[in-house]
Amino acid sequence: MKILIEIKRQEDVDSKPYTQLIEQEIERDNLTVASLLRTMNAHLELKDVEGRKVSKISWECSCLQKKCGACAMLINGKPKLACDAFVRDYLKKGRISLAPLSKFPVIKDLIVDRSILYNNLKDMKAYLDRELVFKDKDTDTAYEASRCLMCGCCLEVCPNFFAGGDFYGTASFVSVSRLISAAKKGEASELKKEYEEHIYKGCGKSLACKDICPAGIDMDRLLSKSNEVSVWKFFRQ
Question: What is the pTM of this model?
Answer without folding.
Answer: 0.90
